[in-house]
């Protein structure tokens, strides 16, 4: 999806539009946006390529993260407190700290921001343009969202952009047909594995490696601030959050170096990897439910799952139809990480080190789950053979686990490769429940 600088609109519930809102490209020092991990604005990990000759897309399954948001209710107060510590320093050495005399914390909590709304609208336009042949006024995408406000608004903005790009070929946006309650069974939210370990130990270990030298440097320039390593992590996050919220580079960005942001990047990589990724023994199982729903759509067979699925919703053709050409699901980053891991994408031969980043790793959160990240599963007819390919942020995945060639895998081979999902996580789901 291509984002241009024209300004943005909040689009929640918009049915039609007279202008095209777009998420701006925001110029920040030394191109650090790709070091913001899961807080990075969407960017293409690869350029979309057409299906191979002889293959025609017959079905699309889109899984997309919500657009850019404010800090969560848990993180926001901690970030603000660290910033107030820095502002309260007795004196400063360096012009980059001058802005603090007039700075106040102005970020909201949890909800989608206008930049994030525009990202979703942009994505809808791109996906209509790419897959217009699969839809018409009576065959619309089937849209679901997890019930968090920012996820629901993302789905609505995407639908508005999808309809806008049709130039009135679609009289109205695809409706949000199902909202999955996050307090109940929900394949679009990872909340149903209370016994799963957290990533706290791993992120704390890395913080103790990369953050102390940064704290020493800033404390030497901000006399009396007494920042600790945790404060550094919080302050680094203010750069992306203020930048996307105000659509201009945050002054906090100028306090840090490119290497500092690489430290933040790895912090977020570790957080995802050890939360719902391969580093957590109960991480991938939290994505099994959605994978089994995907298998049902690809094979036009009822959902077979005993994990996160809502059997009532998935058992009804009204709330889980099997005859659609386009499915669009909207979710959170940690849930997408669990789904990637359940599928077998971005494999790591070893767990990520907590003392030094591996430059050759496949695991970069900014390439996996930036704000508004899409995963697309294209089902194709390839000279009579049902086949698939998977794209994450437009990059075709190799799918070596199902004997793929150039990222193409037959549907039968793909289903066979998903034994982990088809067995409800090889017993891991039972451990989620104690």
UniProtKB/TrEMBL annotation:
Cross-referenced Gene3D superfamilies: Phosphoglycerate mutase-like
Active site location: 66 (nucleophile), 333 (proton donor)
Recorded GO CC terms: extracellular region
Listed Pfam families: His_Phos_2
Keyword field: Disulfide bond, Glycoprotein, Hydrolase, Secreted, Signal
Annotated catalysed reactions: 1D-myo-inositol 1,2,6-trisphosphate + H2O = 1D-myo-inositol 1,2-bisphosphate + phosphate; 1D-myo-inositol hexakisphosphate + H2O = 1D-myo-inositol 1,2,4,5,6-pentakisphosphate + phosphate; 1D-myo-inositol 1,2,4,5,6-pentakisphosphate + H2O = 1D-myo-inositol 1,2,5,6-tetrakisphosphate + phosphate; 1D-myo-inositol 1,2,5,6-tetrakisphosphate + H2O = 1D-myo-inositol 1,2,6-trisphosphate + phosphate
Coiled-coil spans in chain: none
Matching SUPFAM superfamilies: Phosphoglycerate mutase-like
Annotated disulfide bonds: 55-382, 239-253, 402-409
Compartment annotation: Secreted
Signal peptide feature range: 1-17
UniProt xrefs under InterPro entries: Acid_Pase_AS, His_Pase_clade-2, His_PPase_superfam, Histidine_acid_Pase_euk
Listed GO MF terms: acid phosphatase activity; inositol hexakisphosphate 3-phosphatase activity
Main subcellular location: secreted
Subunit structure comment from the entry: Monomer.
Protein name from the UniProt record: Phytase A
């Amino acid at each position: 999806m291509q984002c241009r600088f024209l300004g943005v609109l909040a689009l929640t519930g918009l049915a039609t539009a007279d202008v095209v809102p777009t998420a701006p490209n925001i110029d920040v020092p030394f191109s650090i946006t790709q070091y913001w991990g899961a807080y990075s604005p969407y960017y293409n990990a690869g350029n979309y390529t057409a299906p191979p000759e002889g293959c025609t897309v017959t079905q699309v399954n889109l899984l997309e993260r919500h657009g850019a948001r404010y800090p969560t209710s848990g993180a926001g107060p901690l970030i603000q407190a660290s910033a107030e510590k820095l502002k309260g320093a007795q004196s400063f050495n360096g012009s980059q700290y001058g802005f603090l005399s007039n700075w106040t914390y102005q970020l909201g909590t949890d909800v989608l921001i206008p930049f994030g709304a525009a990202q979703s609208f942009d994505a809808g336009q791109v996906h209509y343009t790419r897959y217009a042949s699969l839809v018409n006024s009576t065959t619309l995408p089937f849209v679901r969202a997890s019930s968090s406000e920012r996820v629901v608004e993302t789905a609505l903005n995407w639908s508005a952009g999808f309809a806008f790009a049709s130039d009135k070929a679609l009289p109205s946006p695809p409706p949000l047909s199902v909202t999955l309650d996050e307090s109940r069974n929900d394949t679009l939210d990872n909340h149903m594995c209370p016994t799963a370990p957290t990533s706290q130990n791993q992120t704390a270990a890395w913080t103790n490696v990369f953050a102390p030298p940064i704290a020493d440097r800033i404390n030497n320039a901000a006399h009396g601030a007494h920042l600790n390593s945790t404060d550094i992590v919080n302050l680094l996050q203010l750069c992306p959050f203020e930048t996307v919220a105000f659509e201009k580079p945050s002054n906090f960005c100028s306090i840090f170096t490119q290497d500092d942001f690489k430290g933040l990047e790895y912090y977020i990589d570790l957080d995802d990897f050890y939360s719902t990724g391969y580093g957590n023994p109960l991480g991938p199982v939290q994505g099994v439910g959605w994978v089994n729903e995907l298998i049902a759509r690809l094979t036009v067979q009822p959902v077979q799952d005993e994990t996160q699925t809502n059997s009532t919703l998935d058992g009804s053709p009204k709330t889980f139809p099997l005859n659609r050409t386009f499915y669009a699901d909207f979710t959170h980053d940690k849930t997408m990480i669990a789904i990637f891991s359940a599928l077998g994408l971005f494999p790591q031969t070893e767990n990520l080190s907590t003392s030094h980043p591996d430059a050759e790793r496949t695991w970069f959160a900014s390439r996996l789950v930036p704000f508004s990240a899409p995963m697309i599963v294209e089902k194709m007819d390839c000279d009579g053979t049902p086949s698939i390919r998977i794209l994450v942020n437009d990059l075709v995945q190799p799918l070596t686990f199902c004997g793929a060639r150039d990222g193409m895998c037959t549907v039968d081979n793909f289903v066979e490769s998903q034994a982990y999902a088809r067995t409800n996580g090889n017993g891991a789901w039972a451990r989620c429940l104690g």
